[in-house]
Amino acid sequence: MRKSHVMTILLAAAALAALAQPEARPEDTEVWSPVPAVVTPGAYVDVAPPSDAVVLLGSQGLGEWAAMDGKPAGWAFKDGVMTVDKKAGNIQTRRSFGSYQLHLEWRVPAGIVGEGQGRGNSGLFMASTGGGDAGYELQIMDSFNNKTYVNGQAASVYKQFPPLANAMRPPGQWQTYDVVWIAPTFDSNGAVTSPARLTAFHNGVLVQNDVVLAGETTYRGKPEYHAHGPSPIKLQAHGDPSAPISFRNIWVRELGPAAQPH
Ligand code: MG
Questions:
Q1: What is the pLDDT of residue 175?
Q2: Coil/strand/helix, residue 131
């Protein structure tokens, strides 16, 4: 066989292989049912930081936060309330954390418009492992009478675990997240020795019960782990066109070995 014919056959085989394995589409990893039951939460309770907490957002401004390039965080801040600036991009903590307990409050603005993932989308990344949306996202968005794939609605571990219930308050009201994050560990070759685990309450309702993550959350394709140590906590400036959401009262308590699963 002539060399050019061999090349033609090889190129054809490569094209066929590419056809057999199309690029992963985002919708391939969407799950739409069963839909988590709607649970109306009880009244808001103010959970002030305990004595050993690191206050990440209180009355003192955005000093604990930075833009992804390390410059001061460009989001708005007034009277203890921080509001996403979508043009400024994601922000993350200046400090790094391993395993921790975290409290965070967020509010979708009253009168917000948009639908599906395009309504009040943000996100809490338990560990920011790189730029963009790298890490492990607990979804933040408006899931009050707003249908989307259930493994992407509020309080989902994005595209891994739908919430056990939909405990959203309506837009305009403050929502609380209380999360226990057990960071993954890796050996010296970068292999996972213990995967990440997460427990979360949304407005006091259990929404994630010690779920074991398959890797970092991802818009396309399957989750994978990439070895990392203590990491910043990141908040998402999602590109959807709806009005920006706000945050307040964020604090974290680092957890030592006694809090690890056993
Ligand atoms: Mg998000």
A1: 98
A2: coil
CA of 34 to the centre of ligand 1 (A): 21
Each domain of the chain, given as residue ranges in start order, spans 3-259
Q: Which CATH architecture has domain 3-259?
A: Sandwich (2.60)
User: How far apart are the CA of 10 and the centre of ligand 1, in A?
Assistant: 42
21-30, 225-234, 246-255: least confident range = 21-30
- Ligand 1 centroid – CA 18 distance (Å): 30
**Alpha-helical runs (H) found in the chain:** 3-20
Q: Please tell me the total number of residues recorded for the chain in this structure.
A: 262
Determine the Cα–Cα distance for residues 232 and 56; give it in Å rounded to an integer: 11
Residue where the block lists tokens 């963009």: 132
Other beta carbons within 10 angstroms of residue 86's beta carbon come to 16
SS3 content of the chain, % helix, strand, coil (to 5): 15, 30, 55
Would you state the pLDDT for residue 260? Answer: 85
- What is the predicted pLDDT for the residue at 23? 84
